[in-house]
């Protein structure tokens, strides 16, 4: 392990003292009510781990063949759950609703890029998926085959995932913003036999090709195992056509609306999903069927406090794990009505989220800090897109995921979107964890801005040093999970050795899960705050600091929209702090930039302490981000050192920005 947080951590930070307990009204109606309710769930797992998980799995899921055992640790760290039970994920998301009163309930409200929308009921979705699944079967696609899904946000994208699940094919969704090269790499690594794509995707008023990029991936070679490319017609614009291509509407035309699901073991791989590549080459994370679905459904109830009348909106793309667990699977398993949004937050203007919440009377809204930060910037610059111009009174709960949310962004979200009425669930989790690991339970946990608060019941999160020893509260270290949980990663596709090395390193004993993030627990409350990736912990003159803390201090300055902090080697202080800053106004240059850099350095000194003062500040129009919107600090570390980037940048959204950030002021 590299540069891990050490035992003698001296947390320099300003403590967050704002605290927001759930309102009596929210608590009274909540699925988990009060800290007593939360504690009772935690205690139950503590007392009888197997008993609790197997009971939940029996209650929440329908099994074709019941399992006899929950967790099996005999081949750790290759843990299995409910392995001798058989079920089908699609059956549990769709068929169950044909007989439980949900059949005519809206499953999906599709909000198209152009502002038109339509609704699909559970009955209609079941029929769509069944025909789709029969179509896939007619092409010879069967249980265990891998299918790449390269689709826009659409009902068909969700249906494609469900159809694969229905026939036991393992899907691997590739985000529609990825290049032909990234697509080709994933096709090869997954050993896929088919691709499901679309002619075009429509985003921000533009038509962007998808199928043409699939064609390009073929020209790069290595895709010969792909027998069919199934094409959903989104726009109908002119397209090149090859022998292997088949229109989705032709494929499903004569298919029956009945499709017997393929019953698979709970351990059958439902999907492979590549991580976003913030810290290195993406890993093909393999997930199960039973344990995965259990957690996706359970967390809808615990974390999102789901009620039959809710209108749930998760703004993630189905290309990310959030779009898997909280669009394609969790909400459907739980029988929710949800919004699937095709467009982008800034089209036709930066009020799109707010106007869409108003239009569909959204009750639960779940988005990413990167989106919030950019919408704050937009609302500051243009009153007409300010959320106060919209009726957001339908909202009762907000969520955040993907990155740490800076306390100032949290407060803006809380005040402006939540109108100080909605709890915010800051949900910490990863592609590898399959579902939410740490988060407030909205009717129980008092909220603290910038903290994901406490682990969910049964999640044995802890903070340890490099040798796996527990650290006391107040001392930063490595975030680990000490007990297996149902939705955990099963392996890295084709690379079990990398799986063991990355997540269950020998240094920590070989059987506790290493998240790869640094974290610290509050001395009094025990609340967790994520301080940054393990590789991002800074050591300045012997003081260990999380990058997150300094970034939050910068973002708390009224001029600053976004900030990323990295370390670079320094002769006198060991490491020097280098901050990359995006202002709410346009990027300053020359003397103005120097003056502002000075101001911001002093600001950080005042907010945290002189030790946290950045040695250098560079301004950009943006920061290098993954296509999922995460800041790629590993690239900034290289720029800060003045070196040339030779690392994998295949998942980088905006390569041009690197040029701008190369030069020191
Ligand atoms: P790679 O593993 O390839 O570097 P990645 O870690 O960015 O990519 P994901 O699995 O999409 O890929 O992201 C998980 C990471 O996102 C977490 O490890 C954490 O760093 C960050 N994260 C997610 N949610 C939160 C949150 N609520 N608070 C703080 N950090 C979060
Ligand atoms: Mg990761």
Automatic annotation (TrEMBL):
A biological process (GO) of this protein is: acetyl-CoA biosynthetic process from acetate
- Keywords, A to Z? Acetylation, ATP-binding, Ligase, Magnesium, Metal-binding, Nucleotide-binding
**Enzyme Commission no:** 6.2.1.1
Q: What class of enzyme is it?
A: ligase
For activity, the cofactor(s) needed are: Mg(2+)
Q: Which domain of life is it from?
A: Bacteria
- Sites of N6-acetyllysine modification: 630
Mind telling me which Gene3D superfamilies this protein's record contains? 3.30.300.30, N-terminal domain of ligase-like
Which annotated residues bind CoA? 203-206, 322, 541
Per UniProt, Mg(2+) binds at: 555, 560
Q: Which Pfam families match?
A: ACAS_N (PF16177), AMP-binding (PF00501), AMP-binding_C (PF13193)
Q: Report whether Acetylation shows up as a keyword of the record.
A: yes
Q: Any idea where the Acetyl-coenzyme A synthetase N-terminal domain is? A: 38-93
Q: Which PROSITE patterns match?
A: AMP_BINDING
Annotated coiled-coil positions are none
Q: Which GO terms describe its cellular component?
A: cytosol
Q: Which residues form the AMP-binding enzyme C-terminal domain?
A: 549-630
MF-aspect GO terms: acetate-CoA ligase activity; AMP binding; ATP binding; metal ion binding
Q: Provide the AMP-dependent synthetase/ligase domain boundaries.
A: 101-485
Record note on modification? Acetylated. Deacetylation by the SIR2-homolog deacetylase activates the enzyme.
Q: What does this protein do?
A: Catalyzes the conversion of acetate into acetyl-CoA (AcCoA), an essential intermediate at the junction of anabolic and catabolic pathways. AcsA undergoes a two-step reaction. In the first half reaction, AcsA combines acetate with ATP to form acetyl-adenylate (AcAMP) intermediate. In the second half reaction, it can then transfer the acetyl group from AcAMP to the sulfhydryl group of CoA, forming the product AcCoA.
Q: Which family does it belong to?
A: Belongs to the ATP-dependent AMP-binding enzyme family.
Protein name, please? Acetyl-coenzyme A synthetase
Q: Supply the source organism for this entry.
A: Sapientia aquatica
Taxonomy of the source species? Bacteria, Pseudomonadati, Pseudomonadota, Betaproteobacteria, Burkholderiales
